[in-house]
């Protein structure tokens, strides 16, 4: 499970000064469960817009999006979204940030071990009581990842999650993403402007045209990872 079907999706925005912008102009894309897809294309072409639609944060002007055959209506823990700056709650410590989704769903008491497991998984043991501003960029992204993974998503949506990190931290986190993908077998959809990153990480690369975006071509990478 975790297949995403995007059919003839059009997304238009009206700007504050009343102009209409077509961000997506008929996007068709079928993503199989367990694929690692990278979305690449020039800045402003509509990659984030497409990701937000898949997340259920926004609705298409025309066309349909579905997950495992069911229409995408609103957000769901089944589709976890990680942003470039993780968007941790600054007033919560790392433990509470990561536990947030479980608490919100009232499954917290049964899942203390689960919180510890995910804190360990992203190598943040010992930092439970730290606040986001006390951590490095890489640690914040790891916490952001754990906060989403703890909800057991079937699809992980990544909006340039490594874009703001230094090269060394980025390389480490790239390898962690590959490891996670192989281990958890979840569908991953990564928006990136880094072609090398797309080639290194994904099983297929979807190239989008400059705005208004369509799918320009799909490249099979099929690398056998070390
Ligand atoms: P990318 O992620 O590829 O850089 P985006 O999806 O962020 O591109 O944006 C695609 C286009 O749609 C851009 O021209 C952007 O300004 C516009 N856009 C995106 N979201 C909105 C919005 N909420 N209101 C108005 N315009 C938007
Ligand atoms: P809709 O509700 O019509 O589907 P969205 O909810 O996707 O549209 O867009 C609203 C969000 O996008 C807001 O958070 C807004 O701050 C942000 N936004 C507004 N203008 C732009 C823009 N030009 N580029 C990217 N994001 C934008």
TrEMBL record:
It comes from the Bacteria. SMART domains: AAA. Pfam families: ABC_tran. The keyword Nucleotide-binding applies. InterPro entries: AAA+_ATPase, ABC_transporter-like_ATP-bd, ABC_transporter-like_CS, ABC_transporter_ATP-bind, P-loop_NTPase. Residues 4-226 form the ABC transporter domain. GO terms for molecular function: ATP binding; ATP hydrolysis activity. Keywords: ATP-binding, Nucleotide-binding, Transport. PANTHER family: ALIPHATIC SULFONATES IMPORT ATP-BINDING PROTEIN SSUB, TAURINE IMPORT ATP-BINDING PROTEIN-RELATED. This is NitT/TauT family transport system ATP-binding protein/sulfonate transport system ATP-binding protein. It comes from Pectinatus cerevisiiphilus. The lineage of its organism: Bacteria, Bacillati, Bacillota, Negativicutes, Selenomonadales.
């Amino acid at each position: 499970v975790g297949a995403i079907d995007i059919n003839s999706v059009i997304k238009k925005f009206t700007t504050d000064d009343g102009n209409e912008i077509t961000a997506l102009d008929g996007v068709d894309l079928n993503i199989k469960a367990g694929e690692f897809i990278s979305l690449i294309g020039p800045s402003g072409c509509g990659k984030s817009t497409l990701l937000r639609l898949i997340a259920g944060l926004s609705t298409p002007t025309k066309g349909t999006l579905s997950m495992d055959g069911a229409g995408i209506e609103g957000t769901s823990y089944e589709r976890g979204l990680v942003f470039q700056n993780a968007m941790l709650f600054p007033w919560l410590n790392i433990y509470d940030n990561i536990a947030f989704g479980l608490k919100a769903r009232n499954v917290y008491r049964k899942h203390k071990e689960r919180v510890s497991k995910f804190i360990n998984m992203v190598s943040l043991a010992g930092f439970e009581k730290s606040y986001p501003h006390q951590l490095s960029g890489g640690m914040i992204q790891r916490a952001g990842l754990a906060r989403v993974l703890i909800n057991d998503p079937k699809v992980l949506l990544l909006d340039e999650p490594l874009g703001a990190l230094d090269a060394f931290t980025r390389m480490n986190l790239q390898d962690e993403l590959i490891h996670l993908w192989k281990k958890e077998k979840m569908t991953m959809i990564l928006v990136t402007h880094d072609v090398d990153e797309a080639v290194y990480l994904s099983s297929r690369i979807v190239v989008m045209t400059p705005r208004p975006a369509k799918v320009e071509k799909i490249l099979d990478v099929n690398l056998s990872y070390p």
